[in-house]
Amino acid sequence: MTRFALTAALGLVLLAAPAVANDSTAAMGAGGLVLQRTDGIRMVSEDLYVSAREVRVKYRFLNHTAEPIETIVAFPMPDIAGSWEESVGGDVDSDRIVPFITWVDDHAVHVQLERKAMLGDRDVTAELAAMNLPFSPSGQSAMTAMEALSDPDADRLAAAGLIAVERQDGARWITTNWTLKTTWFWTQYFEPGREVVIEHLYAPATGGSAGSIVGDRESDIPDAAAEYAARYCTDRDFIAAAARKRAEGLYLTETWVNYILTTGANWSGPIGDFRLVVDKGSPDALVSFCAEGVRKIGPTQFEVRHQNWTPTRDLEILILTGHRLDP
Predict the structure, then answer these.
(1) Cα distance between residue 134 and residue 125, in whole Å
(2) Most CB contacts within 10 A, which of 7, 211, 237, 320?
(3) pTM of the model
(4) Is 218 left (phi over 0), alpha (psi -120 to 50) or beta?
């Protein structure tokens, strides 16, 4: 089945692509923002709080050279792909711009936004704009735009590789093929030998599903279970807890929150002092994510700490919430 038909068939409630990412230096190239490494600025610490309602992060950076450094600092968001299976998350309105607030040394700064629609290595942003199509390939706005396409326009977009069109018995299904890449950025000056504190506040739009197979023996799909284990490190205890909630007559829904950690490796050396707090929101909810040294610090919060740490994978969080359906 195609992307839009599949979404309806599975009854998924797909919301906006999750959360935020570690800062990284960047350069403005001919094709837009290009992330690059720096050997002159060290991330002294990162204090990160992630929940389905709010993401807060506070960094301390140090220019350890004898010369001032002025560079573009970029904050890439997770990609939004045309297929929900390939995207970090889908959404009902991916073209909605959610405020992204930044402070540098306690002063608010203006950040710019770059949004690019990419088909592989090809920038198709201008092509979509020329046809008044949304830059996001998924969500309600994309679905509405695809349904409104005339057959000649749909065939022209298909010939360009932007969409795939399937027709059968007078019905038409369209799959979008491009990916939306979004990055917030600004120019930052780093004095030699002086720490700079950068803070972000962002209300993440989360991904999710109106149902879940976790803990449901009747819906046991080996491939899906393996994917959950690889992505969220769901273990036997987590699955057993989900099964107990089902035995209590609760219906489980999923919330997905992601954070791009690996760009933290673009700074000089490892992150000196790293702290992560994941908040599952409700004491009755279940949460699973991949991390070492996780410890519970409150009814809803879990903490991870590392010293001189280099992230090798991004953070993907699964939250299961139980609902009692009316008879």
Answers:
(1) 9
(2) 320
(3) 0.80
(4) alpha
Two tokens at 42? 């060290």
Mean pLDDT of the region 284-312: 97
User: Tokens for 35?
Assistant: 């992330």
Mean pLDDT of the chain: 85
Give the HSE-up count for residue 160: Cα atoms under 13 Å, Cβ half-sphere: 16
CA angle 82, 57, 102 (to 5 degrees): 85
End-to-end CA distance of the chain: 33
Q: What average pLDDT does range 3-30 have in this prediction?
A: 45
- To which H or E segment does residue 148 belong? helix 140-148
Question: Quick one: average pLDDT of 109-124?
Answer: 94
Task: Report d(CA 210, CA 255) in Å as an integer.
Answer: 9
The encoded tokens of residue 174 equal 């369209």
pLDDT at 3 > cutoff 80? no
From the list 191, 200, 161, 165, the residue with the least C-alpha distance to 77 is 200
Q: Is residue 203 within 8 Å of 4, Cβ to Cβ?
A: no
